Amino acid sequence: QVQLVESGGGLVQAGGSLRLSCAASSTIFRIMNMGWYRQAPGKERELVATITSGVTVTSEGRTNYADFAKGRFTISRDNAKNTVYLQMHTLVLEDTGVYYCKATTLGGDYWGQGTQVTVSS
Questions:
Q1: Which residues pair with 109 in a beta bridge?
Q2: For residue range 24-51, what is the model confidence (pLDDT) as tens digits?
Q3: Residue of 58, 9, 57, 4 lying closest to 34 (CA atoms)
């Protein structure tokens, strides 16, 4: 069982920045692929960014971003702290939503409870 706890959300003005954190309670964090997703009111949950596990040197830390996140958001991980981050810059109103952390393991997918991000004008 993997438990994920997100933090770092809040209210920010358009153009501002936030850094989200997701702490995993698992000794296998290093080999889990991690991702951030978001869900705006009335919309489907969508991918924000993913980062691969550290199983091999060649596979560790490969990132993938949704088009809206490219150039503004950065996903990273600290395997020593069992934590994945999402640094967000130049936030716009459309970035408002609940941001979820997801862990992908051989045993299945796990989700956090989400953290609210609200961008105001």
A1: 104
A2: 997 777 778 999 999 999 999 999 999 9
A3: 4
